[in-house]
Specification:
Elements: H1 3-17, E1 20-24, E2 28-29, E3 37-39, E4 45-49, E5 57-58, E6 61-65, E7 68-72, E8 75-90, E9 97-98, E10 103-105, E11 110-114, E12 118-119, H2 127-142, E13 150-156, E14 162-165, E15 168-170, E16 172-176
Antiparallel strand pairs: 1-6, 2-5, 3-4, 4-8, 6-7, 7-8, 8-13, 9-12, 10-11, 11-16, 13-14, 14-15
Length: about 180
Amino acid sequence: MNTKSNWLWVCLLLSGLSHAQIYHIDGEFDGCEWGKIYPIFGHHLLLECTEYKYFYRNSPEVEAEGRFVIAIGGEAINARIIPGRIINTSTSNPFEGCKKGQQVNFANGLTLVCAEDSTDRAPKQGTQSRLKSRIKSRLLQTTPRSQPIEVRIIMVEGRSPKVFINGRRYSGQLTRTPPQN
């Protein structure tokens, strides 16, 4: 074999060793907590963190080998790529919490049937937090409660959906809203 063909074989061999896929997180990345999920831009894929590691990047590059993440934004990290998606929508009626069996309709045609009683109020807080809560409640009094509230639904293939309303997780059954006659 001549030198040119040896070089060709080395290049072919080395190109076959790395099968890294490159993705991008859709939006801000503010660190990993075990089980935290981020959407992958342009795919029905999610990144699920499998360790605790904190750093910030905006739409960072994700390098993965198969379903295992090698790095995010150049930082080595333990995470995995999983099939699924995140749906952002809003409530289609006023929302102040769940009562067991209550239906909460969303603007995208999905409905959450609440599994337990829970309000949209924060737990008891310290003095400084109470002051912030009073300011926030005064602001909310000037804002009509009939405005749509942000809803985030995390749907991972093979798992039950996770529903977050106004940043708080609610449990229940997610169904399609029947059409109105």
